């Protein structure tokens, strides 16, 4: 509590070009700036996701050890995702490992040549969708399963969309090749229409004919995955505090919350104090997919963790913190933040860039309309170029104003500013940090990201002319 009157506060903040109302939610950075006006300091006890994201984008990983690729299987229902995962687990893991798999933890690893491949054992879209929403990419390679007797189906198309969005390499497993009605060429044709041109037809996509029933072609599939992984040269830093992501989570009688974490970087040690989404605890025990107890788990290792207070959600991020008290503080903060957001977003109505023209037209005020933009870019040069170009697009009826932006990821503050000023956010080679994405969803702020300047400029032009087709 600063103990200052709201009007005086609002006025000083207004000098910073910000309009705040009594119940508005403000991000940490902004809070820091405001507090500084009153000689206060704001302590950020949450994780600096912005810094993490910016660091991730530019980090040179070539000196780190190789890590296992993470593979997920997608495809239409009944095309054989579960059968394929079951076959590989039973026939390929058990063969190489004493004891085989005794525990179903949501992930397992297979040895192929000198490499280990880690499969996420949870087919289906829900978990991935949750992870994607949080801006986290868990998977390095996707195996797209298509039944040879059925061909491309709605969820096949949906999976392709996911794969393209996530920009992950795909290997097509043409399954049920044992069936008399199998027609792998028809599958290839169907997928070619969706941009997956087979290598043998001059394209870049690997296709492998398999049968999850007889095991035919499975070794070829595993080798294709291993080769792809080798090309990708995935490396990660095993040193330092672990970061990970929740793959699966449930309550087990007598054991409490049981959570499978995929460690993504650093090393998770038994006994670490951890924060996972909105819950925390101590990693009391770590168990791998063979049922073996581990003392520590490095990058790309899936482990079942006991010791969390509550059940987190798939896609939640794990971080290691100093002690349990700090963990609790962070969790309390996150919950309070979420509640504050929920309270302020009741009347949030999504207005997209596509709707801008319509809104501007319906607005009966005679004054000139302003399209307010917040632009984030990866380098200063392109930011300047975009800013100058879009501001030039204004015409006699509408002007374009870049109200904020610069180099870096799209932050909470950007979203709040957009919400308060009915502006739109455009990212060029920059995405929103996880929390910003969440706030944008709750406040109905439209964020568009681009990797081609022309497309960005074109969208702004079309929005001004009312010609941008809404994507629904
Ligand atoms: P999911 O919904 O994609 O996980 O598909 P499932 O793995 O549950 O398989 C759906 C059905 O197809 C089951 O009855 C499987 O036994 C059958 N199936 C899966 N793979 C094959 C295969 O390679 N050949 C044959 N003949 N049947 C298969």
From TrEMBL:
Leader sequence segment: none
Domain (Tr-type G): residue spans on this chain: 66-235
Top-rank lineage group of the source organism: Bacteria
GO cellular component terms given for this protein: cytosol
Keywords carried by this UniProt record: Cytoplasm, GTP-binding, Initiation factor, Nucleotide-binding, Protein biosynthesis
Region (G-domain): 69-217
Primary location: cytoplasm
Keyword match Protein biosynthesis: yes
Residues that coordinate or bind GTP: 75-82, 121-125, 175-178
Compartment annotation: Cytoplasm
GO molecular function: GTP binding; GTPase activity; translation initiation factor activity
Family label: Belongs to the TRAFAC class translation factor GTPase superfamily. Classic translation factor GTPase family. IF-2 subfamily.
Function per UniProt: One of the essential components for the initiation of protein synthesis. Protects formylmethionyl-tRNA from spontaneous hydrolysis and promotes its binding to the 30S ribosomal subunits. Also involved in the hydrolysis of GTP during the formation of the 70S ribosomal complex.
Name assigned to this protein: Translation initiation factor IF-2
Gene, per the UniProt record: infB
Residues of the full protein shown: 321 to 792 of 897
């Amino acid at each position: 509590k600063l103990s200052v009157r709201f009007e005086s506060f609002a006025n000083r903040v207004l000098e910073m070009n910000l309009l705040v109302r009594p119940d508005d939610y403000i991000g940490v950075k902004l809070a820091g700036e405001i507090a500084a006006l009153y000689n206060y300091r704001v302590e950020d006890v949450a994780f600096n996701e912005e810094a993490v994201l910016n660091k991730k984008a530019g980090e040179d990983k070539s000196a780190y050890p190789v890590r296992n690729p993470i593979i997920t299987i997608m495809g239409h229902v009944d095309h054989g995702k579960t059968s394929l995962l079951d076959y590989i687990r039973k026939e390929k893991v058990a063969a190489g490992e004493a004891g085989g798999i005794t525990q179903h933890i949501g992930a397992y690893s297979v040895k192929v040549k000198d490499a280990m491949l880690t499969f996420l054992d949870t087919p289906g879209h829900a978990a991935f969708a949750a992870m994607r929403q949080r801006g986290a990419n868990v998977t390095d390679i996707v195996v797209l399963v298509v039944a040879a007797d059925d061909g491309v189906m709605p969820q096949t198309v949906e999976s392709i969309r996911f794969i393209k969005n996530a920009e992950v390499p795909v290997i097509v497993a043409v399954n049920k090749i044992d069936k008399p009605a199998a027609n792998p060429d028809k599958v290839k044709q169907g997928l070619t229409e969706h941009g997956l041109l087979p290598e043998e037809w001059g394209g870049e996509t690997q296709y492998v004919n398999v049968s999850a029933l007889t095991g035919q072609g499975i070794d070829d599939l595993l080798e294709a995955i291993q080769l792809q992984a080798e090309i990708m040269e995935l490396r990660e830093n095993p040193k330092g505090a672990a970061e990970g992501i929740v793959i699966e989570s449930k309550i087990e009688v007598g054991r409490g919350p049981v959570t499978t974490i995929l460690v993504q970087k650093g090393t998770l040690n038994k006994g670490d104090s951890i924060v996972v989404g909105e819950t925390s605890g101590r990693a009391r025990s770590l168990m791998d997919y063979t049922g073996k107890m581990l003392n520590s788990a490095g990058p790309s290792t899936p482990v079942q963790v006991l010791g969390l207070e509550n059940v987190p959600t798939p896609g939640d991020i794990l971080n290691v913190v100093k002690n349990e008290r700090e963990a609790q503080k962070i969790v309390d903060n996150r919950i309070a933040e979420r509640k504050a957001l929920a309270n302020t977003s009741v009347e949030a109505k999504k207005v997209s860039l596509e709707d801008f023209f319509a809104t501007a037209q319906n607005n009966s005020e005679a004054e000139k309309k302003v399209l307010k933009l917040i632009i984030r870019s990866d380098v200063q040069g392109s930011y300047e170029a975009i800013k100058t170009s879009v501001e030039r697009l204004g015409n006699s009826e509408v002007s374009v104003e870049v109200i904020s932006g610069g180099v870096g990821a799209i932050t909470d503050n950007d979203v709040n500013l957009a919400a308060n000023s009915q502006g739109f956010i455009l990212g060029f080679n920059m995405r929103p940090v996880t929390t910003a994405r969440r706030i944008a969803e709750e406040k109905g702020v439209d964020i568009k990201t681009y990797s081609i300047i022309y497309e960005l400029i074109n969208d702004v032009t079309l929005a001004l002319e009312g010609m941008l087709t809404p994507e629904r």
